[in-house]
Amino acid sequence: MHIRPRRSVLYMPGSNTRALEKARELPADGLILDLEDAVSPDAKDLARRQIVEALTEGGYGSREVVIRINGLDTAWGREDLTAVARIGADAILFPKVESPEAVQAAAAALDEAGAPADLPIWIMPETPRGILHIDSIAGSHPRLAVIVMGTSDLAKELRVPHTAERTGLLTALSLCVMAARAHGLEILDGVHLDLSDAAGFRAACERGRELGFDGKTLIHPKQLEAANQVFAPTAQSLANARTIIQAWEQARTEGKGVVVVNGRLIENLHVEEARRSLALDKAIRALTV
Questions:
Q1: 165 vs 75: CA distance, rounded Å
Q2: What are φ and ψ of residue 136, in 5° steps?
Q3: HSE of 227, CA atoms in CB hemisphere, 13 A
C-alpha cells in the first residue's frame, strides 16, 4: 500500500524569495508555490522567475512541491504553464476548475508544454458550478490526482460566512470528498484564515479529518504542527490497528470467520482501515527534510 502523506500543504507566494527559501526547512508534507491569488498582477513575472529558480536549485527534500498557476484563461496562465511544466514540480495545481473539459484542457496544455507524461494535475473547485460538476470533474482524466478545496472563494460565491463551523460549506465539502473517494483521488481541506485562533484551527482540522479529508492546506507555518498532529494516526489508533490485524490473522489461521476485539466485531473492512493507518504512519516516519 503506497501512501504519500499530505497532512499539511502550505501555500508559499512565489513573489516572496524569503518564503521560498524558508520552505526548505519547514516540517510541511507539501508546498504549493503560488503564482495565483497570493501574487499581485505587477509581481506575476517576478514570481514565475523565482519559482523556476527555486525548483532548479532544489533542496526541498521529501516535501511534495506543487505549483499553482494562474487560470489558463488569464493573461498569465499559458506563460506560467510553459515555464513550470518541465522544472521538476511534483504536480501542477489549476485553480477555479468548473468542468471536465477544463481538466482535459489542462492536460492537453501540459502535453503541449512538454510536461512529463506522469506529471499529476491537482484542481481546485471554488465555485458553485465546480461543486455541482465535481463527480464528472473527478473522473475526467487519468492525470488528475488531488482535489484542493478553495473554500474562501467558494464562501464568497455562495454568499455564506466563512465561519469556524463552516455550516454553509458542509454540503460542498462532503460532495467533494465523495467524488474524490469514488474516483480514487486524494482531497485536501481549505484554509483557515484566522491566524490568531489556534484552538479554532485545530478544531477545523479535526472537523476536516472527520469529514474524510487527507490533510489541510495552510497559509502560515504556525499552522503546521497542529495539522501534522491531527491528520496523523494517534499512538492509540496504531496500537488498536496492530491488535486488530493480529487477531484477524490468528482467526484466519484457526479457520474462524468471525473475530471480536475488545467487544467489537471485526470484519475485513476494519482490517483494511487498520492496515492503511499503519502504512500512513510508516510513510510519515519515512519523510526526510
A1: 36
A2: -70, -35
A3: 29
Can you read off the three cell numbers belonging to residue 115?
510536461
* Residue 244, H or E segment: helix 235-253
CB 82 within 8 A of CB 113: yes
Beta strands in 128-230 (DSSP E): 144-148, 186-189, 215-218
Alpha-carbon span 10 to 82, nearest angstrom = 23
170-182 helix and 151-158 helix, angle to the nearest 10 degrees: 130
CA distance 12 to 219: 8
Paired sense of beta strands 91-94 and 215-218, if any: unpaired
Residues in Cβ contact with 254 at an 8 Å cutoff, skipping those fewer than 6 apart: none
Q: How many CB atoms lie within 10 A of CB 114?
A: 9
In order along its 289 residues, the chain shows pLDDT tens digits of: 789 999 999 999 999 999 999 999 999 999 999 999 999 999 999 999 999 999 999 999 999 999 999 999 999 999 999 999 999 999 999 999 999 999 999 999 999 999 999 999 999 999 999 999 999 999 999 999 999 999 999 999 999 998 888 999 999 999 999 999 999 999 999 999 999 999 999 999 999 999 999 999 999 999 999 999 999 999 999 999 999 999 999 998 988 877 899 888 998 899 999 999 999 999 999 997 5
Show the cell assigned to 47. Answer: 514570481
- Cα 114 to Cα 79: distance, rounded to the nearest angstrom: 13
Q: What residues have CB less than 8 Å from 113, skipping those under 6 apart?
A: 81, 82, 85, 86
